[in-house]
């Protein structure tokens, strides 16, 4: 498959693996890159030494390009920004904020910069400040989300910018890839599907919950605090939503989520942990290698395009 995105990033398939905090480490990222997509290591809130080690391990496992996601709310964001230049990481994606202050540094180092945006205004701003592409992420995604759905956001971003647009949020198979391309995207980013990849090192309990989830099994906490986060419904989200309804303070709510993602990912705490997941969890039904996933997804999309070509008389 050849699109503006595969050309920009020198990859085989127009599929990025989301930079999921605590989840997207070197094993997963290298597996996705080796399979022909773009694997991404999540810097999340990790200190610079930890991220450096992750980058070095990924380099040992793959000769293909991979990326690092910088979570802009991290207290280490600036140090990480410099680390990526030092380590000559070819692609950087950003989330949860405006990467404007790092843009010049990264562009001068020859890196490809791909911010995640949740609105047209942000997409235009990122194009103006020199982004190579944008990821338009709809609110079907897991983790920290915006307001607009992928179906509405992607075509509006496509109309607003000239750089390649990558669709994300609610995309988990070849139908999603084909649909995103039809909306004008040059590729997709997927997170939830990769949670159950064989190379994904999250706790077995978390994987099982994703495999068992149904369409309506995610909940969004934190709408009242301005930090909406989508995750699988469990005791923690029920308590959180109840406390939000009671008007509990940001500090009290934070106590419930502090360290909760790590507890889900590493300890398999499916009760009090935060199992971040997108709305497509309901259609993720099997564990596969990243290679099997990418080949299946691209094969499905190609079949759909072939079939669609017969619709026109
Ligand atoms: O960033 C994400 N998803 C994330 S980050 C994350 S880390 C976290 N962990 C625990 C609790 C809360 C967060 C988990 N999931 N996706 C990309 C994304 N970016 N979604 C929304 C945005 C975004 C939001 C505001 C992008 C830009 C933006 O603009 C801010 C501004 O300055 O205008």
Tell me what you see in this structure:
This protein is of the alpha/beta class and 313 residues long. It contains 14 helices and eleven strands. It has helices spanning 4-9, 26-34, 48-61, 77-86, 100-108, 120-128, 150-160, 174-182, 192-195, 204-212, 235-245, 250-257, 260-267, 290-308, and strands at 15-17, 39-42, 66-71, 91-95, 112-117, 134-137, 143-144, 165-168, 187-190, 218-221, 229-232. A hairpin with a 7-residue loop joins strand 10 (218-221) and strand 11 (229-232). Helix 2 packs parallel to helix 3 and helix 8 crosses helix 14 (290-308). The longest helix has 19 residues, at 290-308. The radius of gyration is 18 Å and the shape is globular. The mean pLDDT is 97. Ligand TUI binds next to strand 5 and strand 7.
Shape: globular
Number of strand elements: 11
Bound molecules: ligand TUI
Largest sheet strand order: 1-9-8-6-5-4-3-2
Q: Would you identify the regions where 5 or more consecutive residues have pLDDT less than 50?
A: none
**H/E topology pattern:** HEHEHEHEHEHEEHEHEHHEEHHHH
Treating each run of at least 4 consecutive H or I residues as one helix, how many helices?
14
Q: How helical, in percent, are the residues?
A: 40-55%
> What structural class do helix, strand and pairing data support?
alpha/beta
Give me the Rg, rounded. Answer: 18 Å
**End-to-end Cα distance:** 25 Å
Sheet with most strands: 8 strands, parallel
